[in-house]
């Protein structure tokens, strides 16, 4: 059986759904193919943040921000290994995309200071609400969404990628895309062979991420000649309790509120204000990869109920952290040398006063906030690991979301958006930029597919 539509979208996470709403609202016939039984993918497992600047939400909270500041932060965090054109495209379209999401019914409930940002710009969503709303909008505009639909191959016709081979309910189909195919299938955090090939140093990480994130989209694109970007910068995500699973993502970033990180010797080993991807690298270099977040009641009081990264009270209720009235007793409970931990905290507190931290910490996160002393009892600790949550590397695209070959030429008919794309994050990761780029470039991919095909049809 063969079907013909304007646009085929592979994957129904944030990128795929934004693309489907954009394309269907423009009058295109759209089919979305999701291989899992449910839509949402790893977008449902995200930290709930989207990075936007200059929004009405920020203004309501007295936050002054700009796209230029957002762009510079992204480049700094990525150590300028990012594709500047992609980052600038993000900056150009981020505010309109925020407003577009609001108009689609996506609810933003808070704005936090998160990793990598000069200003508080981590706009918090409820992932289920956002995904469900975008799905509803796509269907309202006529898009058809199929789950348990496994794309097996793509095929060129007349030098253009036009055909999608898919298995659905035990039958094989070919879907022809007249205007374009958009790959939005996520990364490969659940592909042991790809992780072993591209990131053997991440063997000792907790395996999280969407169950369907096995690199299908990368394989599909590579067969059509796609080039890859950023694989040397693959990193784990720091902040998870060792018992974490996809169903129970037990994560805390107390260090961005003023906590510190120590190893099993009770020593600090990293500047806690840097990207949690870089923190993950540093943690994996410690003996047995055993590390602890340490904080006091001052930081505990900064917790945010219901927040994916800052709901410290809920983690305490689950019994995932230790608590004591003294540093010495806390050290004994977690099994680190008491004298060492006491000396570490004493030296850190002195550095907070002098501004001369041996590890270079002068802020809470990136360039935002001022560190506070760890002095107010009770004191807390959480055993913390690095997880393989998302792979911010993949196929090369340009600012039009066109997939590129090794010669930097676009592959006709093929677009990509979301986690499957490389080149955007560079050597680091800024919180909220993953969901942000998924929405922004998902929309761009849809617009470009329609625009280019319209031009081509006009020339015929």
Any descriptors?
460 residues; alpha/beta; 19 strands; 32% helix
Short synopsis of the structure:
By secondary structure, the protein is an alpha/beta fold. The protein has helices at residues 14-25, 56-60, 67-77, 84-104, 127-140, 192-198, 216-223, 276-284, 297-300, 312-317, 327-334, 338-354, 433-459, and strands spanning 2-10, 30-33, 49-51, 108-112, 122-125, 144-146, 149-157, 160-168, 171-183, 206-207, 228-229, 237-240, 260-263, 291-296, 322-324, 379-388, 394-395, 402-404, 410-416. The radius of gyration is 23 Å and the shape is elongated.
What's the assembly state of these chains? single chain
Helix content: 25-40%
Global shape: elongated
Q: What is the radius of gyration computed over CA atoms, rounded to a whole number of angstroms? A: 23 Å
Strand percentage, roughly? Answer: 15-25%
Q: How would you characterize the largest beta sheet?
A: 8 strands, mixed
Q: Quick one: how many beta strands?
A: 19
* Class by alpha and beta content: alpha/beta
Total of DSSP H or I helical runs spanning 4+ residues? 13
Termini gap: 28 Å
Average pLDDT, rounded to a whole number, is: 94
Return residue spans where pLDDT drops below 50 for at least 5 consecutive residues. Answer: none
What does this structure look like?
The chain is 32% helix and 22% strand. The chain has 460 residues and is of the alpha/beta class.
Task: Describe the secondary structure blueprint for this structure.
Blueprint: E1 2-10, H1 14-25, E2 30-33, E3 49-51, H2 56-60, H3 67-77, H4 84-104, E4 108-112, E5 122-125, H5 127-140, E6 144-146, E7 149-157, E8 160-168, E9 171-183, H6 192-198, E10 206-207, H7 216-223, E11 228-229, E12 237-240, E13 260-263, H8 276-284, E14 291-296, H9 297-300, H10 312-317, E15 322-324, H11 327-334, H12 338-354, E16 379-388, E17 394-395, E18 402-404, E19 410-416, H13 433-459
Parallel strand pairs: 1-2, 1-9, 2-6, 9-19, 10-16
Antiparallel strand pairs: 3-5, 4-5, 7-8, 8-9, 11-17, 12-16, 13-14, 14-16, 15-16, 18-19
